[in-house]
Design goal:
This protein is of the alpha+beta class. The chain has five domains: 6-153, PAS domain (Beta-Lactamase, 2-Layer Sandwich), CATH 3.30.450.20; 176-279, PAS domain (Beta-Lactamase); 299-400, 2-Layer Sandwich (Beta-Lactamase), CATH 3.30.450; 428-546, 2-Layer Sandwich (Beta-Lactamase); 573-626, no CATH class. 37% of the residues lie in helices and 27% in strands. The strands form six sheets. It has a six-stranded antiparallel β-sheet. A five-stranded antiparallel β-sheet has the order 4-3-7-6-5, sandwiched between helices. Helix 1 (23-34) crosses helix 2 (36-46). The longest helix is centred in the first third of the chain and has 23 residues, at 153-175. It starts with 5 loop residues before the first strand and ends in a 10-residue tail after the last helix.
């Protein structure tokens, strides 16, 4: 018979499991022996499997169904053998379990209690607490072993997650860009801090910072610490409390502190943000605002601040100079008072511009304004919707453009005079801008080309070439703006006379009955600043001159050819008075026809005159010369 089972308690004392030690235990054991359902209830309700091992037959071990279900297997397919479970336990844990088994068999006071890892059917790991007690015979020999399994997988996962979170938050604590701390309220001693706070305060390490930093010595204004403690004690926390402290080297540092008080523990925890740069920017912004306020007052443009209904809320000094009102008078004026007051320069028209500025964005337009003395003058107005101090506002900048308008009118008059001059030039003339668009086309040009002003003005893409060539292509007027060897070579003659001035001759077979020869001149046009603004070209029909010139050239060629066929003899010729022979330069006497033939291009053909015929041939009957 097995002996009474014993088992050490958590303190290491052996507990007596004899059912006779208490009547309730005895009653429970009796019930378990008589009612198997109670045993099933205990193993199903409080354990994740129990096992019972025959140490006299070590290969035999009974495992409850819950153990195999825990590992994901069908209990019906598993045998009650020790080898069944040993293939699923982690080798390292199996070794630990076996060592504990040996020690427990040798000494009942050594607990058989360890956490081991099993491989689940799906490959995951199952953590199990495995406890057991050895049952001995009367001689103390281990003959059986009863054990229980408790699933700790969820607990282990939670522990792992907790460690991971602790590591993550520790990492965040150490690497956070803001300073994180714990400080004792009584004296301000730092109990914990991260590296960012240590660096912020000018220390190389957290240990050095905690050891050396004395809070009371680093407040620029010690009263600020008293106020901080008062707010902490009153509210339990502070948020964004701004103070100025000094770093290790004494340089000032602006910080924003957020903290929570733990009164029972006597410390506070929180974060510190370095706001020195922000404070510096705020100071610069304040200085910048003052600077721009001065510019606002000193600018040469009149500046108005309006509400969305057009009421004037503020003006700069230039408004008073430009319009002749005092600042107080200007603030009491309506837009109508400062305008011509007739459409489209009324209060209603101004409100329409304000609405467009809100809906569509900045507006730029010209406006006829009115001074205090009633004088009207032109202004250029830029209107823009904006937010000033969290209020919707409209900023209007007005510039006096009276002189510009006068200059524009003078320019318009000058352009009209130039247009009139071009219009009545006797030669066909036209003008293009730098984009190649026709901006002038005079009457002579209409007559030559057959194309009217309305048809040509404003046209680009070499439209002015069509009446001359039948196609869109560059002409001399285009080449003075942009040289092109290909099109220059298409002219009969072309000359670059310098300073953007060129001349050409060309033939146009499409014009007239048999084509026309045109002589053209073109030059660049400049504005007052010396910028190229376009080009102008004039052409002249030289067809008649070309025909006369060709006729003259033809006659000259014919005359040269005729003269080329005659070689004249000149000077004294020594001739014999009897035989009529001529002596040459070498002293020889030659027949007259031989000499003339050799010294000119004349050739002789021989015949006989009537007188010689009668003398030589008297027998022949020759008619008498009348």
């Amino acid at each position: 018979m097995p002996a009474k089972p014993t088992h050490p308690d958590p303190a290491g004392n052996v507990q007596d499991l004899d059912p006779e030690s208490h009547y309730l235990k005895k009653e429970l054991y009796t019930l378990i022996q008589s009612d198997p359902s109670l045993f099933e209830f205990l193993q199903n309700g409080s354990l994740d499997g129990i096992w019972y091992w025959d140490l006299e037959k070590p290969e035999v071990e009974w495992m409850s169904a819950r153990f195999w279900i825990l590992l994901g297997y069908d209990p019906q397919k598993k045998e009650h053998l020790a080898s069944e479970w040993q293939e699923f336990i982690h080798p390292d844990d199996l070794q630990v379990a076996l060592e504990n088994f040996k020690k427990h068999c040798a000494d009942p006071n050594h607990p058989y209690d360890q956490v081991v890892r099993y491989r689940h059917k799906d490959g995951s790991m199952v953590w199990v607490r495995c406890r057991g007690i050895v049952i001995r015979d009367d001689n103390g020999k281990p003959v059986r072993m009863l054990g229980a399994h408790t699933d700790l997988t969820l607990q282990k996962k939670n522990e792992a997650a907790l460690r991971k979170n602790e590591q993550k938050y520790r990492q965040l604590f150490e690497t956070a860009l803001v300073g994180i701390y714990r400080t004792r309220v009584a004296d301000g001693k730092f109990l914990a801090a991260n590296q960012s706070l240590a660096r912020m305060m000018g220390y190389d390490s957290v240990a050095e910072f905690i050891a050396e930093f004395k809070t009371s010595e680093h407040y620029v204004d010690p009263k600020r610490r008293e106020e901080l403690i008062e707010q902490l004690e009153q509210h339990g926390f502070v948020d964004g409390y701004e103070i100025e402290v000094t770093r290790k080297d004494g340089t000032p540092l602006h910080i924003a502190l957020s903290s929570i008080l733990y009164p029972d523990q006597g410390y506070s925890e929180g974060v510190i943000i370095n706001i020195t740069a922000r404070k510096r920017m705020e100071q610069q912004l304040a200085e910048s605002e003052q600077y721009y306020r001065e510019i606002y007052g000193a600018t040469s443009d009149a500046i108005f601040i309006h509400d969305l209904q057009g009421r004037i809320l503020d003006v700069n000094r230039t408004v008073t100079k430009m319009f002749g009102f005092t600042r107080e008078e200007a603030l009491n004026c309506s837009v109508e008072d400062l305008s011509k007051g007739e459409a489209p320069y009324t209060q209603d028209d101004a409100v329409k511009y304000i609405k467009k500025g809100i809906e569509e964005g900045p507006q730029l337009f010209e406006w006829i304004s009115k001074r205090k003395n009633g004088e009207l003058f032109w202004t250029e107005v830029k209107l823009e919707y904006t937010i000033i101090n969290d209020q919707e506002r409209v900023v209007v900048v007005a510039r006096d453009i009276t002189h510009r308008k006068m200059a524009q009118q003078a320019l318009a008059d000058s352009e009209q005079r130039l247009a009139d001059i071009i219009e009545f030039l006797p030669d066909p003339t036209w003008v293009i801008d730098t984009q190649g668009r026709v901006v002038a086309w005079n009457r002579a040009m209409e007559k030559l080309s057959g194309a009217g002003k309305k048809e040509m003005l404003g046209k680009g893409n070499y439209a002015h070439a069509v009446p001359f060539y039948g196609v869109h292509r560059p002409m001399l007027i285009d080449l003075v703006l942009k040289r092109d060897e290909k099109w220059e070579s298409a002219y009969l003659k072309i000359q670059d006379k310098g300073d953007g001035y060129m001349a050409s001759e060309s033939f146009h077979p499409e014009m007239g009955e048999k084509g026309r020869y045109l002589s053209g001149t073109a030059t660049k046009l400049y504005n007052a600043r010396g910028d190229v603004i376009g080009a102008i070209e004039s052409v002249r029909d030289v067809t008649a001159e070309k025909k006369s010139e060709k006729e003259r050239e033809r006659l000259i060629v014919e005359l040269q050819e005729a003269l080329g066929e005659v070689r004249a003899l000149s000077g004294l010729l020594p001739i014999c008075s009897a035989c009529k022979k001529i002596r040459d330069d070498k002293g020889y006497w030659n027949q007259i026809e031989s000499y003339i033939r050799d010294h000119s291009e004349a050739q002789f053909s021989h015949s006989i005159c009537p007188e010689c015929a009668r003398d030589l041939y008297p027998e022949l009957d020759y008619p008498k010369q009348v």
